[in-house]
Amino acid sequence: MTLERIKQASLMLFSIHGFDGTSLQTIAQQVGIKKPSIYTYFTSKDALYLELLHDSLTQELDFARQLTKIRSDAAFKEVLFQFLSSFIDRYESEPSVSYMLKTFLYPPQHLQAPIQDLRNHYIDELERILFTVFSKEPADRELYISLANSRQYQVVVPLQRTKPYPAAESSFVFFMVHLQGLWVELLRSGAERAYVRLQRTWPLVSASV
User: Fold this and answer.
1) Of the ranges 91-100, 122-131, 152-161, which one carries the lowest mean pLDDT score?
2) Whole-model pTM?
3) Which has the closest alpha carbon to 104: 85, 117, 88, 90?
4) Element (H, E) at 156
5) What's the distance, Cα to Cα, between the start and end of the chain in Å?
């Protein structure tokens, strides 16, 4: 489908060259279509860029839900470490991850407001999802159904929030600060150094949670 080919090519090019370094003409050439064909699906490069960010954030939230939907006391810290390390593992293999993080840290100036809105929504929802791991039971027990021919899951029924164990909130805040610090390390130093940093700091993070 042409729309999906446009998105895939755009995501790859934006993740490598950024907003300013990627033109609609370059995207069209990559897809094998004429530039005006892109306007059948998107009114502008801005609209394309923001839709890709929305798609990437939705995908990341789905990943977080799948990782944390089954929680046991024994797997608590394992889930947290896996979530942190997943960003490093996927940063170089999945264009959507590097695109998302680069957009967060280096947004196009004229798109800062809508990007900040999307980022805030993502962080708020990610915090809600991850906070379930910091409770003795899931804070929002959710029912998931598998979509046909897809790895995606959707929430069907949110149930009542349970009371978290004492000090869960402060531990959770510390974890989120560490997560966003890891994002910066990835962008500035690359996956190898980010993984070294994670290995060195994880004992401290693990002790705090």
Assistant:
1) 152-161
2) 0.80
3) 117
4) strand 153-158
5) 46
